[in-house]
Amino acid sequence: MDFNDVDRNYSYSGELGVELSENSTSFSVWAPCAENVELKLYDSQTGGPREVVPLKKGDDGVWRYVSPERLSGLYYTYAYTYGGVAREGLDVYAKSAGANALRGYIADFAATDPSGWDRETYVKTQSPVDAVIYELSVRDFSFDESSNIAPSARGTFAAFYDRYSRLPSGRPTCLGHLKNLGVTHVQLLPIFDFEGVDEINPRSEYNWGYNPANYNLPDGSFSREPNKPERRINELKKLVQSLHREGIGVVMDVVYNHTSRTGDSSFDIAFPQYYYRVDESGRYSNGSGCGNELASERAMVRKFIVDSVVWWAKEYRMDGFRFDLMGVLDIDTINEITRRLKEINPSVLLYGEGWTGGATMLAYERSAMRDNAAATPEVAFFNDSFRDAIKGDTFSGPALGYISGNFHFRSRIIDGLLGRPGWTGSPVQTINYCEAHDNLTLWDKLTASAGGYSESDRKKMARLAMFLVMTAQGIPFLHGGQDFLRSKKNDPNSYRSSDDVNSLKWYMLDKNGLESDYCRGLISFRKKHPGLRMRTESEVSSAFEVLASPDGTVELRLNTPTECLLILVNPVPRAKMMTLPDGEWYLHVSDITASESPMATYCEGIIVPPISGMVLIRKEN
C-alpha cells in the first residue's frame, strides 16, 4: 500500500476520539482503508458487550457514530476489519482505560479535576536556562520505607502530596527535599500507559516505562486504585497541582519513537503498518533499538503525536516534554509540536535525546537529532560530550573522566562551561548533566573508575561534577538522588531490576547530607547570578575569557555589567596556586559550600584545594 497516497487523499485535521457533551457522545476513528469498523460498548472491564454499533465511514476516511446518550462510565473498544478479518483493539486516541488498558473508558474529565484546578497555571521561566531539572521515577521517588511516606502512597502519584515527610534526623524527604533543594522542574520518567508492570499487582514487577502501550492516558501502576479510571486521572492532576504550589514545574518524559508491540498494537490493529516505518518487504525499521519506530513524517502520525502532547499540556498542565530518542522523529513534527505548545505556554520546556537507538529509515537531514539542532532552535539536546568529559566514557565503567584524573578532557570541559558542545552555539539548546536514569549513577561510576581513591576523594569528585554542571552555560539537569550520591548497586541498566536497586534510599541523606547541601547552595547561587544563565552565543562570546592556568586546571573570567565572575577548576588531587586578575576578589563558592555572602577576600592569587571548584566575584562600577 502506498501510504503517501493515503496521506494525500485522507489527511484529516479535525478532532478524533471520544467527545462527551451534555446529552450525547460522539466517536470518531480514522481508518480510511478499513472495510468495516464497529464500536463495542461494555459495562465493565470484563464480560461481553452491552451493545455493538456499526460506525459510518465518511469521505475523509473517518468512521463516526453519535450516541444520543451521555455514555460516561462505560468501557469501549473498536473492531476493525481488514481482509475480511475483524480484530478488536483500543482507540489509539483513548484518554482513559481500565486496569492494564484492556478496554478504553469514557471519562468525564471535568469530574476528575481537583479543587482549584480551574485556576491552575504553568510554572513560568524567562528562559530555558533559568530552569534546574531534577529527573525522577514516580515509583522510585517514595518506594523505600525511609521516605517516611504513608505505606499506601509509596510508589504512587499520591506520594507527591506530602510536604512534611522527614527522616528521623529532621531532613525532609520527597516533596520537602525538592523544595529545599531549589529545583525548578521535575522530569518524570514515563507516566503514560506502558507495558511491563501489572497494574493490579504492580509490586510483582518493575519497569521504567519506556515501552509505550497507550500514549494519552496515565499508567495505572502509579494509582492507589488502578481499577477506577477517574482516580488515576485525578491523582496525576493532584501531583501536578502539588508541585506547582511549591513553584516546581512538571516535565513529561515521552517516548513517541516506538511502541512496545507491533502487529497487535492498537496502531497496527487500527491501520496495519501505517503508523510505523516499514521497508518494501514489510519489515519494521528499528531506529529505536526496540523493534520498531513510529513514522512521524506521515500526516496522521504527526497529527497524533502533536494532538497527544497538546492534550497533556492542556488537560494536565504539563510544563514541558523530554523526548526519548528524538533523532527517530522528524524535524517538521518537532517544530509543529513547538509551535503548538508555545501558543499554550510560552515557557514550555522542550528537550530530548539527540540521537537514535539504531539505524533508521528516516533521512538524516530530516532527523531531529542534535547535529540538526539549527533546524529546531527552540528545542534543547542532552550534551553527552560534556557528560563523558566530566566522568569518563558512560559505556566503559573503568574509563576516567576529568574529575577523576583524565585531564586530557580539559578543552571539552571548557566548551561545556561555555555552552558550546559543537553542534550548537546557543546555551538554550544544551542540557548539561553527568548522570541520568540509565547507565551507572555518578557515584557508581566513580566506584568503578576511581576505586583506588579514598571515599573522601570520590566525594570531592562528585561535588566537582555538580559544580561543573551548575556553573556551565545552558540548562542544568540532575538525576534524582545525585545530590546525595545515589547508588544503584553498580547496575548499569536497571530498567527492570528490583525496587531494592532502583528506589531512592532517603536514609543516605544523613550520610551524604553535606553533598546535598553543597548542591543546594550551587542552585541558589546560579539563580542569583544572570552571568551563569546567558541566553545567546553572542552574550557568551563577549563575556567570557579563558585565562592561563596550571596544567589540568581551568580559569574562566566572565564579565557582566555589574560584576565579574571568576570560575576556577582544579581536578588535580593536590592543591594548586592560581593567579587572580587585578582587583579584590570575593569568594562565594568554595570546595564545600556556596554562599551569597562573601566568605573571604583575595588579591593576586588563591590556593584552590584538590579536586574542587571555586567562584570568586569582583564588583564592577
Describe the structure.
The chain is elongated, with a radius of gyration of 26 Å. It has 621 residues and is of the alpha/beta class. It has a domain at 537-619: Sandwich (Immunoglobulin-like), CATH 2.60.40.1180. The protein has an eight-stranded parallel beta barrel.
Q: Structural class given helices, strands, pairing?
A: alpha/beta
How far do the termini sit from each other? 71 Å
- Looking across the biggest beta sheet, what order are the strands in? 10-11-14-15-16-17-18-19
Which blocks of ≥5 consecutive residues have pLDDT under 50?
A: none
Number of alpha- plus pi-helical segments: 15
- Secondary structure: helix percent: 10-25%
Mass-distribution shape: elongated
Q: In the CATH hierarchy, what is the superfamily of the domain at 537-619?
A: Golgi alpha-mannosidase II
- Percent of residues in beta strands? 15-25%
Largest sheet, in brief, is: 8 strands, parallel, barrel
Number of strand segments: 27
Return Rg in Å.
26 Å
Arithmetic mean pLDDT = 98
CATH architecture of the domain at 537-619, please? Answer: Sandwich
CATH topology of the domain at 537-619: Immunoglobulin-like
Determine and state the CATH class of the domain at 537-619.
Mainly Beta
Present the secondary structure layout:
Elements lengths: L2 H8 L6 E4 L4 E6 L5 E7 L8 E4 L1 E2 L4 E6 L7 E8 L2 E5 L14 E2 L27 E4 L1 H5 L31 H8 L3 E4 L3 E3 L17 E7 L10 H17 L3 E6 L11 H5 L28 H17 L4 E4 L7 H14 L4 E4 L27 E3 L1 H8 L18 H8 L12 E3 L9 H8 L5 H17 L3 E5 L19 H4 L5 H4 L1 H16 L8 H7 E4 L6 E6 L3 E8 L5 E4 L5 E5 L10 E3 L2 E4 L3 E8 L2
Parallel strand pairs: 10-11, 10-19, 11-14, 14-15, 15-16, 16-17, 17-18, 18-19
Antiparallel strand pairs: 1-2, 2-6, 3-4, 3-7, 5-6, 7-8, 7-9, 12-13, 20-21, 21-22, 22-27, 23-26, 24-25, 24-27
Helix pairs in contact: 6-7, 8-9, 10-11, 11-14
